[in-house]
Amino acid sequence: MQIQSPIDDKALHTLQQLRASGQIRAISLDLDDTLWPIWPTIAKAEATLLQWLGTHAPTTAEHLGDTQHVRALRHEIVTLRPDLKGDLSGLRRESIRLALSRAGDDPALAEPAFDEFFAARQRVDLFDDALPALEFFSQRWPVVALSNGNADVNVVGIGQHFKASLSASGSGMAKPETRFFLAAAEAVGVAPEHVLHIGDDAALDAQGAMDAGMHAVWLNRAQVAWPHVGAEPHVTVASLWQLCQGLADR
């Protein structure tokens, strides 16, 4: 595997110790903003949705106008439908239904419109280090995806690297809930203290994993300061390249 900027000595030492001790028996992995940047993906999917509405529900498309209004409506539905909290697919589907109803179009079009959006949402552009890291991890440990988003690793085209995949939409749980992390450990058949969780979000991923008794790797691509008071993650890296460097066989 190609290595970009080298990992710092502290993180390298910690990862080498974890690897040598045999404590790592599985990998838990976030998806959005860990394996690919999420907002460019969502922006393209929203543009695809608007284009579809322009053909099949032009009044709705005209009322929405642009992707900013599409996203604003998606945020509005969070308040209107608290029962769908954590179900990103449900929230998006209902925001489309609301837009159709307000414009006087057939709300039943929400289903095919969502399907069009969802298909586009799966067309992600992986970070350069994502696929090599997935190959590295999956050759050594069982890997489980643990995401608050609604990407499908099989549709994205990386499903062969995962033993299991859990999403908030499908599980009725979301990070940083401890039970969601415990479900990930159970899905790959190991105790949480033997799972190394990797993710970009300081609170949802790093703190959530530590609270669940896992080893936490904070993927800090922007290299910002740790934003929380209290315990810091076991390891912080600026890229998945660095993480693989630290976990490589010695």
* Distance between the amino and carboxyl termini: 14 Å
Report mean pLDDT, rounded to a whole number. Answer: 94
Give unreliable regions as ranges: none
Extended strand count: 6
Q: Biggest β-sheet, characterized?
A: 6 strands, parallel
Summarize the structure.
The protein has 250 residues and is α/β, with parallel strands linked by helices. It is built from 12 helices and 6 strands.
Description:
The protein has 250 residues and is an alpha/beta fold. Helix content is 50%, strand content 10%. The protein has twelve helices and six strands. The chain has helices at residues 9-21, 38-56, 58-64, 67-80, 88-103, 110-121, 130-138, 153-156, 168-171, 178-187, 202-211, 240-247, and strands spanning 26-29, 143-147, 164-167, 195-199, 215-219, 235-237. A six-stranded parallel beta sheet has the order 3-2-1-4-5-6, with helices on both faces. Strand 2, helix 8 and strand 3 form a beta-alpha-beta unit. Helix 1 (9-21) packs across helix 12 (240-247). The longest helix has 19 residues, at 38-56. 43% of the residues are buried. The model has no long low-confidence stretch (mean pLDDT 94).
